[in-house]
């Protein structure tokens, strides 16, 4: 297996696919009805069950794929590459703030998506290394900015003080800006030192894909609609718009960029886009359920803040059972998109979809 290095590649994908339409949840949802580890309404008081063990039990007979080991090895490689990409240097306060959020840990779902999607279409992991790191830098920026007093005003992130609490609002704001700039610099330098491993056309497509995911048609657009919707009655269509753009879009871009730099066909790239869009929404549905069923200590961030801010959420609009059913539908949609690919290569993404569905935090 290739190791992630300081260089990486990007590639722009086709324009965003039409928004997924929210449908009335099915009367029964076998997947989450029988395995509701992370979505149970009683889980706030119950001792957490290992998500990994549930997934491993669910995948008996799947060829012995070790999802826990796969995630651990990919996350370790990503962490090493991120540490190398952002050394502590002058001005130290700014770089300490950047490293504080970028190297804070987390599941590394987005970079793993990029790596797995690249491998799914037959590409080498090294080709997706730069975009994998870049998407995590963008994600870290979004968390720093999201926690600011002018946004969600959250003092806790990943079990410790938010960046602006630790370093001050001004430094946190600049650290987020610097992380965003570093993401694109890392991609450009990564392709420049790749020795021609990824064609320039793919790299440019990836750059455009990432930029679109961050701007008015992505994170920024979703955040604005989210902020302006606080306290106002909104429907499921508006809620979907917020989360397709604020949450799902970056997950989608990670997978799409991985597929592009890996040399996927247009058909393969768009199938992976639809897969990632489904798990991006799934991530938010589960997040909304956990927000009302888990404690701050269990989540590593402030629980119940959506209720306090009077935000619309999937459990609020659909009920917890309805949200669980919709999550099951999204898992099924995501897995269906993997049917055209080699089963062995698709195993990481199939397991990742279920990991997101049954996660505990």
Which structural class matches the secondary elements?
mainly alpha
Strand order of the largest sheet: 1-2
How many DSSP E strands? Answer: 2
Roughly how many Å is the radius of gyration?
19 Å
Which regions are unreliable across 5 or more consecutive residues at pLDDT < 50? 1-62
**CATH superfamily (homologous) name:** Farnesyl Diphosphate Synthase
Distance between the termini: 29 Å
Family: Belongs to the FPP/GGPP synthase family.
Pathway: Isoprenoid biosynthesis
Pfam families: polyprenyl_synt (PF00348)
Cofactor: Mg(2+)
Task: Provide key terms for this protein.
65% helix, disordered N terminus, 2 strands, mainly alpha, Farnesyl Diphosphate Synthase, 361 residues
Q: How would you describe this structure to a colleague?
A:
This is Geranylgeranyl diphosphate synthase. Belongs to the FPP/GGPP synthase family. The longest helix is centred in the C-terminal third of the chain and has 28 residues, at 266-293. Residues 1-62 have low confidence and may be disordered. The protein is globular and about 50 Å long. A hairpin with a 2-residue loop joins strand 1 and strand 2. It has 361 residues and is mostly helical. It has one domain (30-57, 66-357): Farnesyl Diphosphate Synthase. It has a two-stranded antiparallel sheet with strand order 1-2. The protein starts with 29 loop residues before the first helix and ends with a helix. It is built from 16 helices and 2 strands.
